[in-house]
């Protein structure tokens, strides 16, 4: 094939396409990987995000070790590789080319991949492909991510990070996890997304993976409407319009819920459809003309809500029947039937059906009421119950629902299926391909062991080279061939050179002939036939569609690439034109570039591309969107240029065309590097070959292309030389000669066919007996399958080697000559290949088996031995006994490969490969990784949800771990015995229980209660605003006196919001309605009572004298001023006269009386009298007016519930007088004296005795104090009496002077005493101070003459 004939190979514009994000061009394949294994790249190769077309992926190589798992990928989809040819490696390396072809645009991207055989042990951990890691913030706080690997990371390993932000991430490891932690920074700017290469190193082993980081998108969940309105008919529940609540801006699935104080409505959690569950209770008299509901939507991150206002309208009489005929339908059908039943409702209008409960993912109802099954084909029968709602499509208040019980009958076998990735694909072949070339291979699957698949081929569409549909039958050029393992191979059955079509779409149909009930499965393949360039004028021009919008930055320089217009098949005389010409220019091959700078152009620039040839013309229109941004520095348009060229390419073959972009774009270019002298580059950026590479020993060339003006602006270039792939199979030798003895054991090696390719071999011989003596393995090894004792001689065998791949069905032959020689008698022969077993706890030198050999002559001196020097066993050379040589550890090594040797005579030997398997013992303890775990859950978590998974480890291979809940355990949770999953069994309520503590035990037995290890799980319940404000009771009753002062508090009613998040919020109270009932009559009243808006106490606004004997009915409401939730209650206020009150003495101490005891007494009296009792007041005063700690009086009134009339006290006493077992009832009096007969005096109680004792003690103390006071006053009286007598004696003495003058003594000065008061004088002298009326009272002290006058004791002595 001439290179110049392949028009797509050297089109620079087509090759400049960018479809793939290439993380690494090197792929490592483990030495122990098998064909068919999935191979993971160092970093994923995936399609770019936001691609507007699908991409066809294929691998070219000579040969290729890998193949793609799916040939068609979409935006952001990862390419998966399969190992298909282990023999394709040359010196451990395989070079292939990955080609990506745009299905719509026809653009091509080619990437050279290097596949290496890795010597890394399979035990070294490898990365499991992780998802993109999301960071919640730009390193403002620390975040942690865990990347799992295939096994535990060895000790002393190193974790290295490479990438732009590797200094902002800290890496460590634990077990089988790589732990990545962000390092917080105060001010840092991160460009998301970014990638880091994570490398695990341990000595000469390593494993690596590219981890992508992206910024977590913030949810902007919101309702589409703030208020939803609809009308609904009372009693029937028919809606004017089916109300559907919708929220947008979510990051994950939205769940809808409803806050409904009536309890009549529900909302579909996924669809947001409002429905009524009990329409029979819906009436205007019960709920008024409007009802307000609150619809709530959450995506797990943000919760939002909006109001639903329902207007209740009166029921309308209808003549036309509407609704389902049955309340429940029973339907039975085969799963193969598309329509499984019909439940059409009756109506004159068009109807919409919805599955509102049950498996809506499996069933759908069309507008005619047909039930469609849209699930997968079932093997076994299944039963489902669904609820179907029907709604008029437009107008009317009609909605109805019914239940459908469905029984689906399965097909009785596993259905045939095709992997989703293989359902559709595009393949490309050449018109010159020979017969037998495999175009496409499709893997069908059927789990039935007796499945017998057959394949058929149908033509869907045939298109010629001008894009026209034609009637040519392509089936004579293609055929379907069944392959191994349920594969269908589409092959070329006839040369395509005579065909007239350029593409054909086939439907490949697979059927299971064993199970005819299984439906057939189809896969589709579009085959594109590559032909030479069209030189003659086509019948029509097929210009591929141009995207409607193409975006480029406003900073692109002149001559920047915009798009590639393509005509298929290519017509060399086609002429292209573009408008507007002052902005764009188009080359002869359809490359659209800029003619001028577009920085000053408008944001949207429409343009038109016209292609013409002769009288034919085709036009495509598009729009160029100019994105504003800063000027970018000059750079090459590609980060790396990579190209594959044939080794036989002539000199001056174009390798690549390079361009730069930026504000200072200038040529020319230069090449640098050790391989640059093999190539040259012109001023336009075209790189060409400078030498002939046909005899070159090199296969890869690497160098740099740089701008001559500034060599720092450069890009790497990689060129790979491809060898021409031969269509023939090459064997190392086509004729082999082998000599063997007639005493070799079975399955001994005889010869081997060597080839670099993976082939299928078949061994034949002209002598059928000889053909049965030998067999050839899949790797070409020939072995004897029978003993050759009786077949001494020379034999010729024919080996046929074949292969089926994209090169077609190829085959070749080889001749093998085997000479079977006669052996002597001393030939050692193993009896059978035996596997030996040893427990890991066995001591050294334990007998574990014996080598068995065929008995031969004793003179041959048979000797046993093991070949490996480091073997874990020893073999007795005489008797062949096998004993342990070391202690075993199953967790370290599970199996050993051993080579045993038998020696007989001098030179006769036999070798046998065998295996020593270690049996695991339960010698390790079950352990939890951590003893205490704490998890947080929301109180609205759904039942059956998993909140935690306990993980215990047991290094023993067969050590099964069972998990147990240790009593006592809360009933709200359950534990899976083998998985360790802790699940929610009952609804949680934060207001009832905020924390649960669960103890979990682990053991090796399911029914064991002896736990080998324990752990504690603390589950903290997070509050959710799921409660509105509520009153302590649904109904309140109270009694008030007719003489209650206006403005007095009647009753204090308090509500509360149980949600912790609502504590402290303001609650607003209101009276919504007031009515007055009296003797069966009722009327509405206004402004009699009012309630404080925030404190909640009810007070009177009018005098109640005119309402004696009646009852007021008050409807009260409370509203949360923050979230608008409400609560309701009712209050009955009975207006009484004091004469209506009755007293009941309760046999309880005051500290023992509770509201429950009062309610119990009230209920007992109400049941006995058939009247309703209402408590008024509790007093702690006995009937005798004496304060007591034991007497509790309950004041109560009775009323007739039917007539709401208060019953007089005399009538109640008359009713209860003849009743026994009731507490004593007496009429209320101001002085609290009982009207009934006094009770006999009870025994003195300890409290009264204590009061009496205290009284007597106080009385005694009072008497003593009075006696002491009397003594004091008596003494005082006597002293005053003596003073008076002395004064009188002195006066008399003065009036009658003495016969001689008394002696004068010195004066003494004393302060003035209080008037008429005696005062003690020093030295014990008693003096009487007599105030002289002539003395000045202002004088501070007085001078007196002390005289002692002796007065006769009686008158006779004077």
From TrEMBL:
Name assigned to this protein: Cadherin domain-containing protein
Primary localisation category: membrane
MF terms in GO: calcium ion binding
Keyword Methyltransferase: no
Boundaries of every Cadherin domain copy: 722-830, 840-928, 929-1031, 1032-1157
Spans through the membrane: 1248-1272
Keyword terms: Calcium, Membrane, Repeat, Signal, Transmembrane, Transmembrane helix
GO biological process, one term: homophilic cell adhesion via plasma membrane adhesion molecules
Record's signal peptide: 1-17
Keyword Repeat annotated: yes
Superkingdom in the source lineage: Eukaryota
One Pfam entry name: Cadherin
A GO CC term assigned to this protein in UniProt: plasma membrane
InterPro entries linked: Cadherin-like_dom, Cadherin-like_sf, Cadherin_CS
Subcellular compartments: Membrane
